[in-house]
């Protein structure tokens, strides 16, 4: 059975708090594991969340500020220590390569050769990632930063009533899916389009440290799950813009404009306390009518069930 869910490992911004670890997000997707922005303490958070180094197939850094990457040494060494045998691809902004190298080889340890590096540069980078495509686009932050989007290809779902009506059953169904056309028992030709309906692929966007820019909207367009920073409340909108961040209200605006199906708010400034948390949800919900999750450490958020188009 497929598993598509976000495992939240940390939700703070520059400074961890008693209740929120530095960033860390593991998106599990049908055997792939995309580890986004592992901040300090990620290795321990993974243990508490019940996930392991063997679940990681990608390490994706949005940028090289510490709260988004100081967990890399521990994660890399855990990959080596646990004997992870499958390839792990590391993607990060090319301008931060010197910092990546320091993190990748931070201490003395028995190294691993399974990690392949893929520095990012340019306006858009698309990478095949198992059953999906991983796309990176630059954002607007004081240092070079990228946001990510994961897209499953569109497919088709079979319609049992139409299959039965045409006498297509058993092994013929699989052949119809593979080849697009079969000969029914009565000698007639049956096409895939006759017995199926479009099945939109699922998608997830991961948008961290950025002020509003065109690529925020491009990355978020039509996604099933939008994971986005909401570092500040609207009262501090000027600070957010000055430091290259978003407010909760802006995150809600992005989700509404994009038609996102589920909004996950995260990356909260330590300046706000527990009493302020409902304000983040309220500000986002004032702009966006869909479900809003205020992310908490060790929480699991499933990717919404796929859309079903009309038959």
TrEMBL record:
<dbReference type="GO" id="GO:0008270">
    <property type="term" value="F:zinc ion binding"/>
</dbReference>
<comment type="function">
    <text>Zinc phosphodiesterase, which displays some tRNA 3'-processing endonuclease activity. Probably involved in tRNA maturation, by removing a 3'-trailer from precursor tRNA.</text>
</comment>
<feature type="binding site">
    <location>
        <position position="63"/>
    </location>
    <ligand>
        <name>Zn(2+) 1</name>
    </ligand>
</feature>
<feature type="binding site">
    <location>
        <position position="68"/>
    </location>
    <ligand>
        <name>Zn(2+) 2</name>
    </ligand>
</feature>
<feature type="domain" description="Metallo-beta-lactamase">
    <location>
        <begin position="20"/>
        <end position="131"/>
    </location>
</feature>
<feature type="binding site">
    <location>
        <position position="209"/>
    </location>
    <ligand>
        <name>Zn(2+) 2</name>
    </ligand>
</feature>
<dbReference type="Pfam" id="PF12706">
    <property type="entry name" value="Lactamase_B_2"/>
</dbReference>
<keyword id="KW-0255">Endonuclease</keyword>
<dbReference type="InterPro" id="IPR001279">
    <property type="entry name" value="Metallo-B-lactamas"/>
</dbReference>
<keyword id="KW-0819">tRNA processing</keyword>
<keyword id="KW-0479">Metal-binding</keyword>
<keyword id="KW-0862">Zinc</keyword>
<comment type="subunit">
    <text>Homodimer.</text>
</comment>
<dbReference type="GO" id="GO:0042781">
    <property type="term" value="F:3'-tRNA processing endoribonuclease activity"/>
</dbReference>
<dbReference type="InterPro" id="IPR036866">
    <property type="entry name" value="RibonucZ/Hydroxyglut_hydro"/>
</dbReference>
<feature type="binding site">
    <location>
        <position position="209"/>
    </location>
    <ligand>
        <name>Zn(2+) 1</name>
    </ligand>
</feature>
<feature type="active site" description="Proton acceptor">
    <location>
        <position position="67"/>
    </location>
</feature>
<dbReference type="Pfam" id="PF00753">
    <property type="entry name" value="Lactamase_B"/>
</dbReference>
<keyword id="KW-0378">Hydrolase</keyword>
<protein>
    <recommendedName>
        <fullName>Ribonuclease Z</fullName>
        <ecNumber>3.1.26.11</ecNumber>
    </recommendedName>
</protein>
<comment type="similarity">
    <text>Belongs to the RNase Z family.</text>
</comment>
<feature type="binding site">
    <location>
        <position position="67"/>
    </location>
    <ligand>
        <name>Zn(2+) 2</name>
    </ligand>
</feature>
<feature type="binding site">
    <location>
        <position position="141"/>
    </location>
    <ligand>
        <name>Zn(2+) 1</name>
    </ligand>
</feature>
<feature type="domain" description="Metallo-beta-lactamase">
    <location>
        <begin position="199"/>
        <end position="268"/>
    </location>
</feature>
<feature type="binding site">
    <location>
        <position position="267"/>
    </location>
    <ligand>
        <name>Zn(2+) 2</name>
    </ligand>
</feature>
<dbReference type="InterPro" id="IPR013471">
    <property type="entry name" value="RNase_Z/BN"/>
</dbReference>
<feature type="binding site">
    <location>
        <position position="65"/>
    </location>
    <ligand>
        <name>Zn(2+) 1</name>
    </ligand>
</feature>
<keyword id="KW-0540">Nuclease</keyword>
């Amino acid at each position: 059975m497929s598993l598509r869910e976000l495992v939240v490992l940390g939700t703070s911004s520059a400074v961890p708090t008693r209740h929120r670890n530095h960033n860390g997000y593991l998106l599990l997707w049908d055997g792939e594991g995309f580890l986004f922005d592992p901040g300090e303490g990620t290795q321990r958070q993974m243990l508490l969340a019940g996930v392991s180094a063997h679940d990681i197939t990608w390490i994706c850094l949005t940028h090289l500020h510490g709260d988004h990457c100081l967990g890399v040494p521990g994660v890399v060494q855990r990959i080596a220590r646990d004997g992870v045998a499958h390839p792990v691809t590391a993607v990060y902004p090319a301008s931060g390569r010197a910092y990546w190298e320091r993190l990748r080889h931070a201490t003395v340890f028995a190294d691993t050769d399974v990690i392949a590096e893929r520095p990012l540069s340019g306006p858009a980078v698309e990478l095949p990632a198992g059953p999906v495509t991983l796309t990176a686009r630059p954002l607007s932050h004081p240092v070079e930063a990228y946001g990510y989007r994961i897209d499953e290809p569109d497919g088709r779902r079979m319609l049992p009533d139409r299959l039965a009506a045409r006498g297509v059953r058993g092994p013929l169904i699989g052949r119809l899916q593979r080849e697009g056309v079969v000969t029914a028992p009565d000698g007639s030709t049956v096409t895939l389009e006759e017995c199926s309906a479009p099945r939109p692929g699922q998608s997830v966007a991961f948008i961290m440290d950025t002020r509003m820019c065109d690529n925020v909207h491009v990355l978020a367009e039509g996604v099933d799950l939008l994971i986005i920073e909401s570092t500040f409340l609207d009262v501090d909108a000027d600070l957010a813009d000055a430091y290259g961040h978003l407010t909760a209200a802006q995150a809600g605006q992005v989700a509404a404009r994009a038609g996102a199906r589920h909004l996950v708010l995260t990356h909260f400034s330590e300046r706000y306390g527990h009493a302020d948390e409902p304000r983040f949800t309220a500000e986002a919900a004032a702009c966006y009518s869909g479900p809003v999750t205020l992310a908490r450490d060790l929480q699991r958020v499933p990717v919404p069930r796929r859309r079903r188009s009309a038959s």
